[in-house]
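User: Please check token order:
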Amino acid sequence: MSVSRIEIDATDGPARVGRVVTARGSYPVPAFMPVGTRGSVKSLDSRDLEALGAGVVLANTYHLMLRPGADVVAALGGLHRFSGWSGHTLTDSGGFQVHSLRPEVDDDGVTFSSIYDGKKVRLTPEGAVEIQGLIGADIQMVLDVCATLPATPEVLRLAVDRTAAWARRARDHHRRLVERPEGQALFGIVQGGTDPLLRQESAERTVELDFDGYGIGGLSVGEPRPAMLEALAATVPLLPADRPRYLMGVGDPVGVIESVALGVDQFDCVAPTRMARHGSLLTSTGRLNLKNAAFQRDDGPLDAACGCPTCSRWSRGYLRHLLMVGEPTALRLLSIHNLAYLLDMMAGARAAIRQGRLTAMCEQVRELWDTPVH
């Protein structure tokens, strides 16, 4: 029996609205997961996330296994107690680092150089399961191979084959592992680049292993959005309707809403908070560059249509001042706003699906984000 499942309240075409149910409880979907790489969303704390209504937060296995170490997180009560977060948590496996850090990859696993001290670190599918068990997230991901795009057919084929082989090893080890949090779910990952046939094959091979949910990896790594959506359209219909579907690493408004329309349930991305730290804000009238001198004397909120704590209290002029003088408070306040924007957009998507108007919402989001930075 699956540890996690999705309960669907309504659909609008392939899009669905409902909740993901786990041993911890449930969270509403479609959902955006703020990224807490090292056990914290950069510049925010758990109270900020609770106030924003986040249902699930992502943490990075690669970083936590190096600092402070998975054993330390376990000794301090697991990820929830360690971070003071009572909502759902998901840990990625380190597979994205196969793409971003270019480690040595072989059939058995990967060898990284630590970004902290340069020491060699070995990660296998079984090791990733054990480390994530110690960290104690509600959902862990299998170790996969995320190919850098564009990639040759040979590179994509090898990534698909290794991902499938590693997924079986991870599943088998997860099922026999005793020392893990009770009810911890394991998600498989579909690879295949932008090749629809490889995507279909990878989906079929992953579904055969009967995971608690399914990640769609290896997209939003430089390919054009139409190619990403074509790959998604080839993948999603092959994934079980009763399990969560997670598109990894996508957080731009158009990419998210178009993927919701194809039947994806949850997303994560560092972009909203990273953009905020550089003064790039998501607003109801498009992107706003707060470093623009025009906002120096602006007494209005970042977004008049936004009810987040930042927009409810502080002006553009004040926030720009904090940003320009390097005041750390700016990073927190601007990150709160950008996360509020995306979380509110997901709430809007859930309402639109229930009301049968997601197509209209997609058109509105596309039109808005075609406008230039202001």
